[in-house]
UniProtKB/TrEMBL annotation:
<dbReference type="GO" id="GO:0022857">
    <property type="term" value="F:transmembrane transporter activity"/>
</dbReference>
<keyword id="KW-0813">Transport</keyword>
<feature type="transmembrane region" description="Helical">
    <location>
        <begin position="35"/>
        <end position="54"/>
    </location>
</feature>
<keyword id="KW-0762">Sugar transport</keyword>
<keyword id="KW-1003">Cell membrane</keyword>
<dbReference type="GO" id="GO:0005886">
    <property type="term" value="C:plasma membrane"/>
</dbReference>
<keyword id="KW-1133">Transmembrane helix</keyword>
<feature type="transmembrane region" description="Helical">
    <location>
        <begin position="215"/>
        <end position="234"/>
    </location>
</feature>
<feature type="transmembrane region" description="Helical">
    <location>
        <begin position="190"/>
        <end position="209"/>
    </location>
</feature>
<keyword id="KW-0812">Transmembrane</keyword>
<feature type="transmembrane region" description="Helical">
    <location>
        <begin position="94"/>
        <end position="117"/>
    </location>
</feature>
<feature type="transmembrane region" description="Helical">
    <location>
        <begin position="6"/>
        <end position="28"/>
    </location>
</feature>
<keyword id="KW-0472">Membrane</keyword>
<feature type="transmembrane region" description="Helical">
    <location>
        <begin position="241"/>
        <end position="259"/>
    </location>
</feature>
<dbReference type="InterPro" id="IPR001851">
    <property type="entry name" value="ABC_transp_permease"/>
</dbReference>
<feature type="transmembrane region" description="Helical">
    <location>
        <begin position="137"/>
        <end position="160"/>
    </location>
</feature>
<feature type="transmembrane region" description="Helical">
    <location>
        <begin position="265"/>
        <end position="285"/>
    </location>
</feature>
């Protein structure tokens, strides 16, 4: 394998990891507040469709990106109302939200399956992009890739270096104690859920506007579920979410590269490698229950209301 091929694989790995970074970091913030949202896949695909429709009808890619994030946040608002205000089961509601989002996007998106879109282009930075090796490794991406990296740094800083982040984590650990100190637990959880939905919608917008600028039914291809697994894999730490997303992105690209090299394995087996890797990682992590208990927010998935405490 020559240097150019290796660089192309690394660049493709970063590009493939971006939707997982967006969705994984968003879900990390949600779970840090004590809420378990299994509707990430549904929010991603609705965000992808809404972003693609706006981009097709208006030609404004920046507006389409914002709309994609807003669509994800709207789906999250539905989830929040049902689980936080009506106190429904979070697992069942998240699963229902995913089924609803997948079905809704398939129905509404029928008219856009054959539409071509000139998507978000990679940035061209004179002088920097032409640097040997580093130029291609660091400056061969579109604006959303850099936004994902900025989001990682901001979220890590917010969670561990700010008072607001401390409050969010306190709500996830002990909502009763946070409420006793005067913090509005439900309101804080609403903000976390909306942020997670916006990040999932942004991940979907990246898929339909930049990664593969088109609309296809089921185009998220289970990435929302991988993002959920990624949070557990990372033991609820932002840095590990970033590393895990890159690893899963690398597995995705590796299976494409293997097909290109003519590896004599069924294409279906190669296509399932990212999901097989997800299962293997979760099994390995689940073997040490102490790590999960030590790092998972204590109130994760548990409903809470002021009147009960």
């Amino acid at each position: 394998m020559d240097t150019n091929t290796l660089i192309l694989i690394l660049v493709a790995t970063v590009a493939a990891a971006v939707p997982l970074i967006f969705a994984g970091l968003g879900e990390l913030v949600v779970e840090k507040s004590g809420v378990l949202n299994l509707g990430v896949e549904g929010m991603m695909i609705v965000g992808a469709l809404c972003a693609f429709i706006v981009a097709t009808e208006t030609g404004y890619l920046w507006l389409a990106t914002i709309v994609g994030a807003a669509a994800g946040a709207l789906m999250a608002l539905i989830f929040g109302f049902i689980t936080l205000s009506l106190m429904a089961n979070q697992v069942a509601t998240g699963l229902a939200l995913t089924i609803f989002g997948v079905g809704l996007s398939a129905f509404v998106g029928q008219a856009y399956t054959s539409v071509a879109l000139d998507g978000i282009k990679n940035l061209s930075l004179p002088g920097l992009s032409s640097i040997p090796i580093l130029g291609k490794l660091l400056f061969s991406y579109n604006i959303l890739v850099y936004l994902a990296l900025v989001a990682f740094m901001v979220i890590a800083w917010f969670l561990y270096k700010t008072r607001a982040g401390l409050i969010l984590r306190a709500v996830g650990e002990s909502p009763a104690s946070a409420h006793a100190l005067g913090y509005r637990v439900i309101r804080i959880r609403y903000f976390a859920v909306l942020f997670g939905g916006a990040m999932a919608g942004l991940a979907g917008a990246y898929l339909s506007l930049a990664y593969t600028p088109l609309w296809a039914e089921g185009m998220t291809a289970g990435r929302g579920w991988i993002a959920l697994a990624l949070v557990v894999f990372a033991t609820w730490r932002p840095g590990r979410v970033l590393i895990g997303a890159l690893l899963f992105g690398g597995v995705t690209i590796a299976q494409f590269h293997a097909q290109g090299l003519g590896v004599e394995l069924p294409s279906q087996f190669l296509s399932m490698l990212p999901y097989l890797a997800t299962i293997v990682v979760l099994v390995l992590i689940s073997r040490d229950a102490g790590v999960i208990r030590l790092n998972a927010p204590a109130s994760l998935g548990q409903p809470w209301h002021n009147e009960l405490h």
